[in-house]
Write a structure and sequence with these properties.
heterotrimer; A alpha+beta (363); B mainly alpha (290); C mainly alpha (267); A: 363 residues; alpha+beta; Rossmann fold; OB fold (Dihydrolipoamide Acetyltransferase, E2P); 6-stranded mixed β-sheet; 8 helices; 23% helix; elongated; B: 290 residues; mainly alpha; MetI-like fold; 13 helices; 4% strand
């Protein structure tokens, strides 16, 4: 079961010095489907952990309702929701063995000894914990501890959703990758809803079917990794996702042409009705800009070139605006001498009015 | 990063070694010196070997004092540690109440030890003391200067009053260091309040409780000023603890050799028990023994 | 409901904690004859006579001054000796480091009574008897190990990379220690100073043995309240109340760091 519905929820931890209620989470409505893999992405303090704690019931929202399917669980305490949570730092019961750790939530829910034994064995095998079942949890390494805390969620037959609060923060980089793929595998096997909080975009984008980007208590965009990458609805998303992020350049737009400091750039779509007083910007991914080999395009001055292994990032100045340009390894364009020029892929130039994406009309 | 090997570090330790040598090693050597001599005057002393040690081992009053001392320290640990933990659990976790509670708690710890004795004399005297007067007016005769049992009760009350705050402060520091995630995980796992205490709070407090038990054992075993002021070791010898007996021997009877031999044995007992506690507390609950 | 039970128990505990102190305060505000003549929960005729006597009689107030002098001296000596040592213990490995650390701690376990006579002889020999510095040095016996212990805990919490970076930036050790490292552990220094102050302030045995008149601590002066008419309870109580004041002031200033200091000690 369990489709999770957040109905106009908002949360405030109290009033600020000026007496105004400050919202850590601004009103939002959202549905999380059964079996989905979701990521909550955003910088520290954007409200993602608050949102997570509202779902798990550790916090009761100041406004709005939380429903699991049709059941209103807004006031239902954590232990009575079929939710498990994995925290940033591995939380294990130090004095118990791994097996006792795994059995703990079942014991508290009054399962029979035989049933517990069966579940624990099963989960331990799937998490590859079966070799250390008899060991004290205290002496384990961080990654094994994190698996144990995940196991305490998986072991419960009733669990419909598992929430992850930046679970890989304290794990070594090599193990991170391994744990992540293991988690993906488990998700397919068990078919639980997974909500994964992170500030690491790679983690979010490789992991989730749906990524929810948050900023200052607001959900800025929810969509597939692809949508977030190519059509960020807000300059914040464009800037936050991608490494380096989207180039944001102030411009004037008329019809299907944009003027950046006197230079004319062609656009893939037409924008006849832009709000007059709005601040207009162009958003272009470094991937959508290329150095031209044939003398077409706009002249730029090269400021620096960073070699990142599989590709290079060129920092160029175009009529006074600084842009990042991704240079693929195989690109032959000569950047050392002469006057480099760049061309934009018109279909991948987005137009933003006051930070928000303008859809435009097909030409 | 690994610690670097550096023998020059000894230069930095030097001031401490000098200070401690002056205040510990030289006096300790004097004590050892006394313990093997019989001293009649400044230039009149005889080497007596282990005689004083044998005398100490056969001193019946000392045996009694030692038994009393063990009983006292055991009671102190049995009462103060659980009580301190319970109070720490009831302490507020945030807000202005925390500051006030901490200041109140620390108050008894900052009172000179003989003043502690004075406070309790004033508090428990049958004629002018609040406690003594109240108990007597309830029809129970209570006088710590006359009845050994009453003296012990008063002494324990004073000791618990004086030192439980230290245990509370330590346990509270340990509790505060537990991240919220542990409590949240316990709620998700459906743990009871007892489970939270047994599997989260108690294990996480192990470090601070080790310090608390060690400190309380050492200080209660070395106790001098408070019972000296309150009861003077009496009535009879009923509250004569090791330190009180030792000072009586050394200062009262000027029995230097005897006192010195006694001192060394006393020191070794404290050392031995502290070491046993330390080892025991370090293995309990850690599982994998090394 | 459980929450309220805990809160109620806590309040009861604090009332019990304060009762003996309140009682002393109560006595200190009454004359001796008033105390002995009738029993009163709340004093009816208040007087500051006892306090006035302490503040005007030099043999009384010099006791407080003496105590404060040797306690401050002791705190300063303990910190100065312990700072470099704690740094060495937290940063370097050297011959005998572990043994030395444990040996330092064992000094905390030595019965003070054991050292009484040797101390008296030692300080008589070097002519320090009845001076403030004698008591300050004697208290180093238990305060220096404690200071090393607490400071080492705080210093180990500072990443060692900071030292390396400072050296790379061309800092010489003394300058690094004073301008970079000390500010980082100033909480630890404060907590340590508090504990040194506290243990030196409450100690009586050494302080009484090593002084006769010139450096006599207040705790020893208090034994003088027996007059021809018996104990002057009011005066004794007032003197007791005044011994609590410096401690209470110090706690108020370090209240936020107190719990922290306990948590960081290494076991």
């Amino acid at each position: 079961m369990a489709r999770i519905v957040l109905d106009r929820i908002a949360h405030s931890y109290g009033v600020n010095a000026a007496g105004v209620r400050e919202f850590a989470l601004k009103p939002l409505t959202m549905t999380w489907n059964k079996g989905g893999a979701y990521a909550l992405l955003g910088p520290s303090g954007c409200g993602k952990t608050t949102l997570l704690n509202i779902i798990s019931g550790l916090i009761t929202p100041t406004e709005g309702r939380v429903r699991f399917d049709d059941r209103d669980v807004t006031e239902v305490p954590t232990e009575q929701r079929n939710i498990a949570q994995v925290f940033q730092f591995p939380v294990v019961y130090d004095t118990m063995t791994v097996a006792q750790n795994l059995a703990f939530p079942l014991r508290n829910r009054g399962m029979s000894a035989a049933g517990i034994e069966r579940r624990v064995q099963d989960i331990a095998k799937r998490l590859e914990l079966d070799t250390c079942l008899g060991r004290r949890a205290q002496g384990l390494t961080a990654d094994v501890k994190q698996k144990v805390s995940l196991g305490r969620g998986l072991v419960r037959p009733d669990v419909a959703a598992i929430l992850f609060d930046e679970p890989l923060t304290v794990i070594d980089p090599q193990l991170k990758w391994m744990l992540r793929s293991q988690l993906k595998h488990l998700h397919r096997q068990f078919d639980f809803t997974m909500i994964y909080v992170t500030h690491d975009q790679t983690e979010a984008l490789t992991f989730a079917d749906q990524v929810v980007v948050m900023h200052e208590g607001d959900v800025v965009q929810a969509g597939t990794p692809e949508q977030l990458f190519h059509r960020p609805v807000h300059t914040f998303v464009g800037h936050f996702i991608g490494s380096p992020g989207m180039n944001i350049v102030p411009a004037a737009v008329a019809g299907d042409r944009a003027i950046v400091n006197g230079l004319e750039i062609g656009l893939g779509r037409a924008y006849p009705t832009l709000p007059a007083a709005a601040r207009i910007e162009l958003g272009v991914r470094p991937e959508a800009v290329a150095f031209s080999a044939d003398g077409r395009g706009h002249p730029v001055t090269l400021e620096r070139l960073d070699d990142l292994g599989r590709y290079r990032i060129a920092r160029v100045s175009l009529a006074g605006c600084t842009l990042n340009v991704l240079v693929p390894e195989e690109a032959e364009a000569d950047l050392s001498g002469g006057e480099p020029r760049i061309v934009f892929d018109p279909d991948r130039v987005n137009v933003y009015a006051d930070g928000h994406l303008v859809e435009g009309e097909a030409r | 990063m690994e610690k670097r090997e550096n023998q020059k570090a000894w230069l930095m330790i030097l001031p401490v070694v000098v200070v401690v040598a002056f205040s510990a090693i030289i006096p300790l050597m004097t004590v050892v010196n006394y313990s093997v001599q019989d001293i009649f005057g400044p230039n009149d002393r005889v080497f007596v070997g282990a005689d004083w040690f044998l005398a100490v081992l056969n001193d019946r009053r000392l045996h009694e004092a030692l038994l009393r001392q063990f009983l006292f320290s055991a009671l102190v640990l049995v009462i103060e540690v659980p009580l301190g933990v319970l109070i720490a659990l009831a302490m507020p976790r945030k807000g202005i109440a925390v500051s006030f509670s901490l200041v109140l708690l620390a108050l008894p710890l900052l009172i000179p030890w003989n003043v502690i004795g004075t406070i309790w004399i004033i508090f428990t005297r049958p004629d002018i003391g609040l406690l003594g007067h109240t108990i007597n007016s309830l029809g129970i005769s209570f006088d710590h200067t006359a009845s050994p049992f009453d003296a012990w009760i008063t002494l324990m009350l004073m000791e618990v009053w004086h030192w439980t705050p230290l245990v509370v402060l330590l346990a509270y520091a340990g509790l505060k260091a537990i991240p919220d995630a542990y409590y949240q995980a316990a709620r998700i796992d459906g743990a009871s309040a007892w489970d939270v205490f047994r599997y989260i709070q108690l294990p996480k407090m192990r470090g601070v409780l080790t310090i608390a038990i060690l400190l309380r054992f050492m200080d209660s075993f070395l106790i001098y000023a408070e019972p000296f002021v309150l009861t003077g070791g009496g009535p009879g010898n009923s509250t004569t603890f090791l330190s009180i007996y030792l000072v009586k021997l050394a200062v009262g009877q000027f029995d230097l050799g005897h006192a010195a031999a006694f001192s060394i044995i006393y020191f070794l007992i404290v050392l031995l028990f502290s070491w046993i506690f330390y080892q025991a507390l370090n293995t309990i609950g850690t599982g994998d023994r090394r | 409901m459980k929450f309220h039970a805990g809160r109620t128990a806590l309040i009861c505990y604090f009332v019990l904690l304060l009762l003996p102190i309140y009682w002393m305060l109560n006595m200190s505000l009454r004359t001796n004859s008033d105390i002995l003549s009738h029993f009163a929960l709340i004093p009816t005729s208040l007087t500051l006579e006892n306090y006035a006597k302490i503040f005007t009689d030099p043999s009384w107030y010099s006791g407080y001054i003496n105590s404060i002098i040797y306690v401050s001296l002791n705190t300063a000596i303990s910190l100065l000796a312990a700072l470099p040592a704690a740094y060495a213990f937290s940063r370097y490995r050297f011959l005998g480091d572990k043994h030395l650390f444990f040996w330092l701690l064992t000094n905390r376990m030595a019965p003070p009574a054991v050292f009484l006579l040797p101390f008296f002889q030692l300080y008589s020999t070097v002519g320090l008897i009845d001076t403030h510095i004698a008591v300050a040095l004697a208290h180093c016996l238990f305060n220096v190990p404690l200071a090393v212990w607490i400071l080492e805990g705080f210093m180990s919490g500072v990443p060692r990379e900071i030292d390396e970076t400072a050296y790379l930036d061309g800092y010489r050790f003394p300058r690094f220690f004073l301008t970079v490292f000390l500010p980082l552990i100033r909480t630890g220094v404060g907590v340590t100073a508090f504990f040194c102050f506290m243990f030196s302030w409450v100690e009586l045995l050494f302080a009484r043995t090593l002084t006769t008149t010139e450096a006599k601590p207040i705790a020893a002066v208090m034994t003088r309240t027996v007059s021809a008419t018996g104990l002057d309870w009011g005066l004794l109580a007032a003197a007791g109340v005044l011994t609590i004041v410096p401690g209470a002031l110090v706690i108020w200033f370090v209240r936020n760091y107190m719990a922290k200091g306990f948590a960081l000690g290494r076991v």
